Amino acid sequence: MERTGIHNEYEDIKAAALPEGRLPAIEVTGRVMARLRAMDHRQNTRGIRFAGKTAAFSGMMVMLLLVAVTAYAASEYIQIRNAAGTVKVQHTAPDPVLPGGGAEDKYMHKALRFAEPGQMIAYYAAGSGDTEAPLRFAFKEQRLTDYSVFLEEIKRTGAPLLPGTAGDYSFEYGSVYARYPNAEEVDSAVLYQETLEELKGRAKASADSGMFMKAVPWTEAGGINATYTKDGAMVGISASLLNGGFMQVLQQPDHTVTKVKVEGREVVYNQVIRPETGYHYLNWYNEKQDAYYTLSTYGDRELTKGQLLELAGDLIRGGL
Fold first, then answer.
1. Phi and psi dihedrals of 244, rounded to 5?
2. Which residue of 13, 92, 178, 309 has the fewest C-beta atoms within 10 A of its own C-beta?
3. Which are the contacts of 41, defined by CB distance < 8 A and separation ≥ 6?
4. Is the dihedral of CA 268, 87, 238, 44 positive or negative?
5. How many angstroms separate the Cα of 161 from the Cα of each of 5, 177, 223, 239, 290?
6. Domain spans of the chain?
7. CA nearest 263: which of 303, 304, 319?
8. What string of DSSP letters covers 259-272?
9. How would you classify the pairing of strands 246-250 and 3-7?
C-alpha cells in the first residue's frame, strides 16, 4: 500500500499554546520534507511510490503528530485496519536520525513569506541542484473565523465536515489545508509542468541563482482543523486525509498509548507526562472518509480522559 504520510510529534499540545491559549500556525518544516523526499526516493527505487493521491504532507499536517508508546514491544506497535483488514495506521519506532532541512528550510520559509493566507506556492530553487523533484510546494494557513465561510471552503475542497460546536465548546476558527501534488501528478499535469517551465525560464533569464515562485490554484484538501473555545479552555479537532494511502505514526519512548473502543471505533488514547509538561489527546481512523483524526484539549483547563472520550463519542456519532 502507498504511504500517505508520516506524523511527527504534534508539538506539546499544552506547551505550544500561546499565552492567549492559541496554537501557532501549523507549517510543514523543511527538515521533515527533506526526510520525506529521502524516503520517497528510497521507496521509488524499489518500485513503491511514497505518496498516494495525497502528498506526504499537506499544509496541516502539518500538525505532524508523533505518538509514542512505552506499553508496547516493537512487535506490538499499534495498527488500525479497515474492514478489509488493510493496515491504514501503523505505529513504528522513530528513525534514529532526522536530517536537518538546511537550504530547504530557507526556501520553504521564503515561500511562506511570499504567500497570502490560503495560497499554495509552487517554487523552484535554481541553486539547489535538486533534479529529482525540482518543483516544490508550500501552503500558508488561512484561519477562518466565520463558520459559514469555513463551510464554504469545506464544500469547495471536499474536506470532512467539522461541526459548528464541539460539545459545549464554540467554534473559534478553522483552516482547510491544500493537498500537495505528488511526484506523478507534477510529472503529468499540464499546470505543474507549465509552472515548472515558467520558473525555470525566469531563472535562466535572471542573474540570480536563487528561488523563483508563483501561486498555483488548488481545489482538493489534504487536511482540516478547527479550534473550539469555552471560557479560555480549548478543544482542537483535525483530520489528515489519506486518500487511499496509509499513515505511519512514529513513536517516542516518553509517551504511553492505549487503544480503546468508542462507539464501535478503535480510538487511540495518547498521554505524555514530562517534567516540564503533560497533555493527552485522541486519534482515530474514519474509514468512510479515509481520514485520520486528532482530538486535543488545552488552554486554561483540560478535559479529563473520560470527558475527552465522551466528546469523541459525540463526534463519531456525528460522522467523524
1. 90, -10
2. 92
3. 132
4. positive
5. 21, 13, 11, 10, 13
6. 3-97+142-180+219-317
7. 319
8. EEEETTEEEEEEEE
9. parallel
Cell matching residue 24 = 501557532
Longest dimension (CA), the chain: 62
C-alpha distances out from residue 98 to 32, 146, 279, Å: 8, 38, 24
CB of 261 closer than 8 Å to CB of 244: no
**What are the distances in angstroms from CA 42 to CA 141, 169, 171?**
30, 45, 42
Q: What is the pLDDT of residue 278?
A: 85
3-state secondary structure of 142: coil
Q: Ramachandran region of residue 205, left (φ > 0), alpha (ψ -120 to 50) or beta?
A: alpha
Q: What is the pLDDT of residue 96?
A: 61
102: alpha, beta or left, given left = phi > 0 and alpha = psi -120 to 50? left
Q: By the 8 A CB rule, do 137 and 104 touch? A: no
Residue of 259, 253, 317 lying closest to 284 (CA atoms): 259
CA contacts within 13 A on the Cβ side of 93: 8
Angle at alpha carbon of residue 272, lines to 271 and 275, rounded to 5°: 145
Name residue, grid cell 520534507: 33
The pLDDT tens digits for 61-70 are 333 343 333 3
121 touches 139 (CB < 8 A) = yes
Residues of the chain where predicted confidence (pLDDT) is lower than 50? 1, 8-75
- Asked if 116 contacts 215 with a C-beta cutoff of 8 angstroms, the reply is yes
Phi-psi region of 167 (alpha: psi -120 to 50; beta: other; left: phi over 0): left
